[in-house]
Each structure stands twice: as structure tokens, then as C-alpha cells.
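Researcher: We're teaching a course module on how sequence relates to structure. For the next exercise, students receive a sequence and then see the predicted structure as C-alpha cells, so they can try to spot secondary structure elements on their own. Here is the exercise chain.
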Amino acid sequence: MKSRATTGTTTPKRLPPAILRMKKLKSWSAVATSGGHTWRTLPVPHADPERAHLNEDWRDATSPDTLRMAIEERLALVTATTAQNPVLCVEYLVTARAEAFTEHGGDTHAPEYFRDALAFLEARHGADNVAAVNVQNDEAAPHLVVYVVPLLERPARTVRKSVFAGGRDENGKLKRVTKEVHQPAEVVLSADHYNGTPAKLAALQTDFSERVGARHGLARGLELSAASHTTNKAHHQALARAMVGHIGLAAEELERRGRLWAKESPEEQAARLSELIHEHYAPVIARAATAEHDRRRAAEMEETARRHAERYKKTAGELAAFTHGLSDTQQAELRQTANHWRREAEERKRLEAQEAHQQRLEAEREHKRAAMESRQKLERRERALVERLKTATPLAFAGADEAIRRECWGLLAGHDDLVEAFDRMSASPYFDSAGHLTDEGRCAVAEKNATEAVERSPDVLTKPQPAMPDATPPPRTPPTGMSGPGM
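Model: And here is the predicted structure for the students to work with:
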């Protein structure tokens, strides 16, 4: 006899959320604090010190100090400022719930998940702008921490600006005109370009869950959620306050009350009973301590549901305005047109980014070329000075300009092929050990200059004088032709 199969609907298992958090670091103190937490140079109560050796660094930065050096190296490329106090660095934290990872029975393999997450952030910001990458395996759930310098390459472009034209219009207001101004290619520091609005942050969560999380058995978190993140510090503080307020007995409360109590001191009784109470009632007290957190989460979920309802209502109204009165075919054509425009916009952005990158490379090549030419020019000048120093006399060297003499003294002390010249100058009484002129050297230079001045001056007594012209000039012949007086 066949058994009748039971049919029913089963609720599909909800995938754990992919967690991507972002924090803007606007000061070097914030960078140092974050780095101290990442590399455990600051106390981290929820981290296991015995597992700290499992943490890994995927970039050269391995400490808060090297993190700052890596950030400063990228900041040196900035050519224009966009804000008075810009964000120096963006800290991304990638993780999931502990039960989602394979070591806790889940389907997410942490190293592969983190590698894909890093590739996603490199594609978003550029691999060169990733200053540090640290994998933390000493906590309950593995974490990936990525530090990114939010550089943005802007291509050369023409912008319109409203400027004062002078004078006033018929209404008495200052006249303004619009001028087109050419803006050269530049590199700016702009975290707002990537994560500056709620819409950009929501799009970041969606893209990350679709491109990274879905490949590792993770889903997107609830969109438009009103929930706020409760830090480990706040959670442990709540538990500690509860334990202090409910667990523990004072020795004064357990005074000796008979012969049976004589074998145990009040302190020993207090410790024993406190341990017993802690063992049996700590879970209840912990739940009570986090009850406020649970109530807040419930209120946040209610607010999230309300936001979704308002969003869907608003979106439905906006779509109805575009599609009202259109047939299904016309609506399909409208969607195709929108998709076409969207692809064009994406292609335009890609080309602009490619052009900005090429301009940046060209500027870097030009800078390297100019630096090389300047270095070669300095090397040629140094070689010429070395050749002249090989045959220079102490007196001639003493008469050189002070700046030139100081530069040449460094060459004498540093070049192996100028050992003889350096010994010759050092043995001369014209210089001290640091290359400065002595009194004898200044006197010799002054005497040399005076001798040369005398040799250059004319001697009117010994040199022959030119013949004097006659007092009576010869008669002048009047000009003839077109310019003569006969005109």
C-alpha cells in the first residue's frame, strides 16, 4: 500500500547578509586610532590574543606608522583641493555573521570572500589607492579591513562660471555674465564622490551584495533599514553594568551566625555564593541587560517597514506619471530607450575616466622627463666643477664666490678623484677645516684683486697719445644731385 505523500510549503532559508561598513577618517588621530585597533597596538577586548598570529597583511603596511606612510605617499599626488578638511582615508570593513562562515558550519569561505571583496574595492577606487589590507581571524567572525585613499582623477574640461561684469542692470542689481573657463586635468581628494550621499551608499551595498556576496552564499541587507550598528564596546559595557549591579555579595552580609559557620570565613562564603549566582543567573541577567537593545531594534525594524511603504508608494506614483495612457508596446519602447541612454552614460563615464587616466600618465611622464633633464644638467655642472678643481690653485679657489666655494668644498670632501686637490686646499693657510676663508686668505684675495685692478687700468703717461686734429677744417663741397641745394 502506498503511503500518501504529504505536501506543504516550506519557507526558503534566508541567506545571511553580506556586511560592508564604511568609515571616514578625517584626521591623523582617527587614522592612528583605527590602525591601533586593526594591528592590536590598542586594547581590543573581544579579540583573542592567542589567535593574533592568524591575522594577515595583504599590503606592505603592517602597523599604524606604516599605514600613515602609505596614506601620505598617495596624498602627495593631489594637485587640487576640493574641501577645507577633506577625508584622508576611508576604512572599509567586510565580514558576515559568524554562522555564515565555513568554520562555523556555513557556506562562506572567508579567504575567497575577502579576495573577491578586495577586488571589488580595487575596481571601485583603483588598486594603487589601496593603502593597507588586513585580515583579522582573532575574533568570533573573520574580518577584512581595507584602507583606501579616495583619490579622483578629473580630466581636462570646460566649466561655466557666473562672474560679475561690472555695473548694474535696470533693476539695480550687479550685472553677472557666464564665462567658460578651461580646467586642466587634476587629481583631487574626494570621499564624497564615492560615498557622499545616501543614494550612493545604498548603491554600494547593492553592488557589493550582487557582485561579491551572492557568489559566496550571502544576500543584501534590508534596504532602507533604520537599524544602527551596535559596537562590541557598547555591548560589553551593557553586560558589565548588569553584572556589577546584580552579581556579588559583600562579606558584611554574611556574618557568623553559629558554630556551623565557623569553618568558613565571610569572605570565602561571599566568593562561593557569588560564583554560584553567576553560574546560574548570568544568562538571565545578560538578556535583561540587552533588553533595551532589543527594544531599540524592534523600533528600528518598524521604522524600516514604514520607509519601505512610503518608498514604494512614491515610486508607484512616479512610474504611473510616465506610463499612464501608454500601451504595453509603448512602455517596452520607453524602457529600451532608457536602457540605451543609460548605456551611453556609462560609456561616456568610462571614456572620461580613461581620458583622465591617460592625461595623468602623460603628466607623470612629463614630470619624470623634466626631472631627468634637471638631474642631467646638475650632473654636467658637477663634472665641470670637478675638472676645474683638479687644477685650481688655493688662491684662485679662495677668490671664488662664497656659495660656489661652499659647494666645491663639499665636492672636494666627497669625491675620490679630488683627494689631491682636497689635500692641496687643506694644506693651504687660506682655509680653515670647514672651508671658510681665514684672515690670511682674505688678505691674499684682497691683494690679488687690487693687483688685477691696477693691471686693467690705462697708463696715460706711458701710452702714446693720438694726434690732435687741425683747427681749420677743410672746405666742404656742397652736395649735388637730388638732395643738393639746387632742388
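Model: If you want an answer key for the exercise: The longest strand covers residues 157-168. Residues 232-252+264-323 form one domain.
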